[in-house]
Structures are given as structure tokens and as C-alpha cells.
Amino acid sequence: MTEVEKKIENIQVEENKNMENNQSEEENSEKEAFELETQISELKNQVEDLKDKLLRKAAEFENHKKRNEEEKIRIIQLQSANIFKSILSIVDDIENALSFNNVGSLETFKKGIEITVNKFVKLLEIYDVRQFNSIGEKYDVNFHDVISTIEDETKDEHTVVIEVQKGYKFGDETLRHSKVIVVENKKSK
Hints:
The chain is α+β, with helices and mostly antiparallel strands. It has helices at 3-99, 106-126; strands at 129-132, 144-150, 160-165, 167-170, 173-176, 178-183. The chain folds into 2 domains: 1-127, no CATH class; 132-189, Nucleotide Exchange Factor Grpe, Chain A, domain 2 (Roll), CATH 2.30.22. 62% of the residues lie in helices and 16% in strands.
């Protein structure tokens, strides 16, 4: 073999090696591309599954909120119905008293009205509505509405001396302020 032939053979061997390396690199690149495409496809599927789960959870939450609101309304309606049923028995008592023609005396009639009022007050207490006492108390904006003042040197300034209309609390909240008259002496003005 001549020197030129050897060089040609070396070049051919080198080209074959390069071709094999190029084929191997192409195969590796194709393999990597396939693996990446597979991973992308899997990730897309996971994203779609998560979106679906999220939508389902959001729908479940909305349904839960709606059921809770409906339940609250139902409870309020039942409580209201119970209160109104109790009031109806008191209305019946008042109607009976008014329709009774043979009232023995004014005292008997008054006693019947007092019983009805007491029955109504007890009903209010069942639902945590209570009267509060104002007479003798210091004026408090949270409980009292002053409708007038009077002078009374024997009483402390701003003391409630007359309760024109009773005040009521519902639990710890003031439901209705007492309408009161308080002491206000001229010398303190």
C-alpha cells in the first residue's frame, strides 16, 4: 500500500468513525427529545388533572356555602315560627279578655291583663330578651334616652328618677333604650 492509499484509507476510517459518532449523537438527541416530549405530555396531563380537581373543589365549596346559607335561613324561620306561635297564645288571652262581657270588676279585668303581661315577659325571657332597671341608675348613653329633666336637690346629678318606657336587652346588646327623666339641678349648669 502506498502512502497515498494509506492516507485515503485513514480518511475513510476517520469518516466512518465520524459517521458512527454522528449517528450515535443523532440517536441520543432523538432519544432525549422523545423523553422530553414524554415528560411534557405527562406534565400536561398532571396540569389538566389538577385543573379538574380545582374546579371540582371550587364547585363543592360553592355548594357547601349555598347549603349553609339555606340552613341558616331555615333555622331562623323555625325560630321565628316558634316565637310567633308563643305570641299567638298571648294574643288569644288578650282577645278572650276583650270579648268577655261579664267582667266582675275592674280589678278582675286588671288582674287578667297583668297575668297576660307577665306571660309575655316570660316569653321574652325564654328568647333572652330582658327588661333592665333604670330607676336610681346614673344616666348611660348605652341604655337610656333622656326625654326630660327635673330638679331634685336630694338626688345625684344625672340620676334616672322616672322611667317613661322600659328598656330591653337581647343577650348583652341593648335592644331598646329606656326613655327616662333624669335629675339636672340648676346650680350645676
